[in-house]
Amino acid sequence: MSGNAPLKRLYIKTYGCQMNVYDSERMADVLAPLGYGVTDSPEGADLVVLNTCHIREKATEKVYSELGQIKLLKQDKQAAGGAMTVAVAGCVAQAEGEEILRRQPAVDLVVGPQSYHQLPELIARAHRARGERLAADFAPDEKFDALTAERRPSGVSAFLTVQEGCDKFCTFCVVPYTRGGEWSRPAEAIEAEARSLAEKGVREVTLLGQNVNAYAGDDGLAGLVRRLAKIEGLDRIRYTTSHPRDMDEALIAAHAEVPELMPYLHLPVQSGSDRILKAMNRAHTAESYLRLIEKIRSSRPDIAISGDFIVGFPGERDADFEATLELVREVDYAGAFSFKYSRRPGTPAAALPGQVDEAVKDARLASLNALLEAQQRAFNERQAGRVLPVLFEKLGRHSGQIIGRSPYLQAVHATAPDRLIGQIVPVRIESAARNSLSGVLDLETA
Ligand code: SAH
Ligand code: SF4
Ligand code: F3S
User: Fold this and answer.
1) Are 427 and 387 in contact (CB under 8 A)?
2) What was the pLDDT predicted at 328?
3) What residues have CB less than 8 Å from 4, skipping those under 6 apart?
4) Using the 8-state DSSP alphabet, how is residue 400 labeled?
5) How many angstroms is it from 54 CA to the middle of ligand 3?
6) What is the pLDDT, as a whole number, of residue 203?
7) pTM, whole model, 2 decimals?
8) pLDDT, tens digit (0-9, with 9 covering 90-100), for 260-278
9) Is-contact 279 330, C-beta < 8 A?
């Protein structure tokens, strides 16, 4: 990047979902005009921001242990006559702001996911008086209106938040409490941000929302995808995360009709047992989910389906878990994330009887993962011999190698000149591993 050297050093650590990745980037954008430049180590930083995740207990506990480390760095800096401001942002800040301030006095301020546009002001205030330290409320429109700072995308693929919050209230989940109700950004604002990204060299956007397919502006998410697909230079569109309930006909049709819309869909199911799905308040059954997948595949046969699973939800018996394995066998996933149920204070499931033993959860997680990993490997191996268009994004670890993504979101390694970064190039896939593909530039079709 060009311009004057930044006066102050900003370290941001991001936990959790892609929405937090987007938010962290925007935090750096709002702080840049104040002279903050991003650094990749917290040591000696003037401002440290932890952008946190509350989804599982482990995610939350990580934040407190990281804060313990940061406290020492802050003391070092103070001893050397300097000062470090420590901010906690994101979903833990929203859920337990007061507790953070109580548990870790080194924290100067706490800022929720809808308030980070106020960071400059909060920092100034913290500097002045160590006065009001809490800003946690819900009004996404205010935030986006205030985020006038230019985005500085760091690569050819960028996240773009289009929807926030969740009204689904799955009984295990904190998101409706940390991110508030469903809210959609106006299509015009999204289009403007997408255009400016494209002008800066971005070729792919991933539209983000906790329930992105509940996007309520324009003509729903399908309308938004069609609108963005017209933008010059924007060749690839993705979206995540979707709820089965909001997967409408128009969006399914868009997968068949809009070439820019990539053949990849993350559609969490959580469980294959109707009894458990009901207790989770998921509003779909195993059967309705399978029918939906069938419909999506008849629209776009090669689509890569991924999902999320929770094992050990309260009351889950062996037969329920078997039903999950059965559903996974029927769907045949290209990839997935599975988690042990984590009891979250304040959520309805935390109070349910029949909490499952850790050892049982461990065993179920291991056997589910074994099945999902085998499916992922098989999906990757099926690409061998095919020629896939790859959007190259960055240098590889070995010299002469660059890395990109296939339409199915697989990482693809190829030996090729780095001038191809930022371009979509046909690659003949030669081999597959569980997490990536390797190939060679396909000169015949190039
Ligand atoms: N809005 C998205 C993402 C939610 S969080 C969705 O509905 O899919 C991402 C994943 O974390 C969820 O899909 C779920 O599988 C998992 N998750 C959420 N709460 C959890 C909990 N209490 N314990 C374990 N996993 C959880
Ligand atoms: Fe959480 Fe369910 Fe909303 Fe997803 S749909 S964010 S799992 S409450
Ligand atoms: Fe975590 Fe908040 Fe995202 S709880 S998963 S960072 S919405």
Assistant:
1) yes
2) 98
3) none
4) T
5) 6
6) 97
7) 0.92
8) 999 999 999 999 999 999 9
9) no
Q: Contact 269/276 with Cβ under 8 angstroms?
A: no
- CA distance linking residue 370 with residue 4, whole number of Å: 51
Contact 228, 205 (CB under 8 A): yes
Q: Which two tokens stand for residue 229?
A: 């697909």
Pocket test for ligand 1, best of 208, 339, 343 (most atoms within 8 A of CB): 339
Length of the chain: 446
What's the 215 CA to ligand 3 centre distance in angstroms? 18
Mean pLDDT score, 108-112: 95
Instruction: For ligand 3, pick from 15, 63, 178 the residue to mutate: most ligand atoms within 8 Å of CB.
Output: 178
148, pLDDT greater than 70? no
**Amino acid at position 266, single letter:** H
For ligand 1, which residues put their CB under 6 angstroms from it?
55-56, 166, 172-173, 175, 210-211, 241, 243, 268, 270, 308, 310, 339, 341-342, 344
- Domains of the chain from N-terminus onward: 8-139 (3.40.50.12160), 149-262 (3.30.750.210), 297-382 (3.30.750.200), 387-441 (2.40.50.140)
Cβ pair 78, 84 in contact under 8 A: yes
